[in-house]
Amino acid sequence: MAEDLRGKVAIITGASSGIGKETALALAGEGVRVVLAARREPRLREVAEMIDARGGQALIVPTDMSVPHEVERLIRMVVERFQRIDLLINNAGYGLFASIEETTTDDLRRIMEVNFIGAFVAIKAVLPVMRQQGRGHIINVASVAGKRALPYSGAYSATKFALVALSESLRVELAGSGIDVSLVCPAATATEFFQVAENRTGRRVRPVGPVQSAGEVARAIVGLARRPRPEVITFKPARALVVLNAVSPRMIDWAMRQSIKRARQRREESTAAGAGPGV
After folding, report:
1. Marked catalytic residue, from 97, 156, 161, 235
2. What is the pLDDT of residue 110?
C-alpha cells in the first residue's frame, strides 16, 4: 500500500538547486513539510518562496554538510520545530573532475566530507529520533558512478561507492526496526553539476550519453517515499551498464577508453577547424 505523505516532515540536503530543489517542490506538492538544507541561503529562500506560493510549508536551515556540528544542529532544529523527522534525503554533493594523479589528499578529504561524511553524520543524528518514533525513511542519493567508476572522476565516484556501501549495510542492520533505507542512483542529470564542479582536466566536461531532468529523479524519490524499496537506478539503460560491469568489467573499460578517444578526436578536429588554413 502506498504511503500517505501528507503532514510528514522531510529533510532535504543540497536543496538549493538541481535534484534537491525539484525533490523539495515535489514533496511539498504532496503535502510534506519540507526542511531545506544547503549552504546558499539566498537560493534556499527562493525555493521556500516557490513552495509557499504553491500553498506548501518549508523551513530553511542553512547548513554546511562538511561541518559535523552544523549537520547535528540541523537535526536538532527540525526536532525542536516539528517534534519528528519522517524522511531524511541525503542529496548534498559536488563533483571533481581530475585524474587520480592530479587529485590531492586535500581534494579527496574535502569531497568525502561533503558527499559522504555529511550524510553519515546526518544518519547518525537522525537514527535516535526515528527509533523513538518507531519508523522513518532514509533516502541516500548516490549515482550510477557509485556502481561503476568513471575515468577522471575517481574521487567523486569513491564518495558515491561509499554511500552505496553505507546504505546497503544500514538497510540490513535496520531490518525490522520500522526504518527503511533506500538508495537512488541517477545517471547524468541536467543540473548545474557540471558547471560548478571542480575541473582539472583542461577541457570542458559534459555528460556522456542521454541526460535526465532533475524532475525525473525527483519523481523517483517521491515514488520511493510512497513505496519504500531498497534501490532505484533512475535511468533504465544504466541498469544494463551495472550488470555488464559485474559480468565483464574489461568490456566496460574498453567502451570507456573508446569514448575518451572519440572525445579527444572531436576536440582535435574542432581545434584544427578553428585554426583555419595554414600559411
Report:
1. 156
2. 97
pLDDT band at 264 (very low <50, low <70, confident <90, very high): low
The answer to whether residues 44 and 60 touch, using CB atoms and an 8 Å cutoff, is yes
* 58-73 tens-digit pLDDT: 999 999 999 999 999 9
Residue type, 59: L
Query: CA 145, CA 17: separation in Å to the nearest integer?
Result: 20
Cell of 147: 556502481
Using an 8 Å Cβ cutoff, are 152 and 163 in contact? no
- Alpha-carbon gap, residue 96 to 74, rounded angstroms: 26
Q: Is position 156 annotated as part of the catalytic site?
A: yes
Strand pairing report for 189-190 and 212-213: parallel
Listed in sequence order, the residues at least 6 apart from 231 whose beta carbon sits closer than 8 Å to its beta carbon are 167, 182, 183, 184, 185
Q: What is the DSSP string of the chain?
A: -PPP-TT-EEEEETTTSHHHHHHHHHHHHTT-EEEEEES-HHHHHHHHHHHHHTT-EEEEEE--TTSHHHHHHHHHHHHHHHS---EEEE-----EEB-TTT--HHHHHHHHIIIIIHHHHHHHHHHHHHHHHT-EEEEEE--GGGTS--TTBHHHHHHHHHHHHHHHHHHHHTTTTTEEEEEEE--SEESSHHHHSEE-SSS-----S--EEHHHHHHHHHHHHHS--SEEESSHHHHHHHHHHHH-HHHHHHHHHHHHHHHHHHHHHHHHHHH-S--
Grid cell 542492520 in the structure block, residue: 173
Q: Rounded to the nearest 5°, which phi and psi values hold at 124? A: -60, -40
User: Rounded to 5 degrees, what are φ and ψ at 60?
Assistant: -100, 135
CATH class, 9-237 region: alpha beta
The three cell numbers of residue 167 are 546504505
pTM of the model: 0.90
